[in-house]
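Tokens for AGR3 protein. Go.
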Amino acid sequence: MLHSPLASSLLLIAVSSNLAMAIKKEKRAPQTLSRGWGDEITWVQTYEQGLYEAKKSNKPLMVIHHLEDCQYCQALKKAFAENEEIQEMAQENFVMLNLMHETTDKNLSPDGQYVPRIMFVDPSLTVRADITGRYSNRLYTYEPQDIPFLIENMKKALRLIQTEL
């Protein structure tokens, strides 16, 4: 009789333990460097890698600063990911980086560390302070309705490489 309650207890502990481990290992979509901004785009992992790739490939680096829990970032990400022209230009003509943390390069936060913030760095490793968004209080922010303006700024970044470098 003593073995039965003991065996039942051990079985219950084993089942509980396995269940807890299964809950911890629940299936999640794999986290990619895209973070939802465009899965077909090749993304670099760090700012330093982005600078290296920009110089090596002679393409501008596009740096997107965002936070996962920011509603404005999420709205911009959705518009960015759904726009075919942006996706194609980003994939073919830019070195792409999205960051959820600040870099040590203070040139990437000339008017503050707000999000979302999109900045361009040319292959000479110069942060382009002359490519800004529409807002005077946050120069490098874009909203979903600013997608056409962002496209124009991407084209401007490409033109500047041809004329200045």
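Helices lie at 3-24, 47-57, 71-82, 84-93, 147-164.
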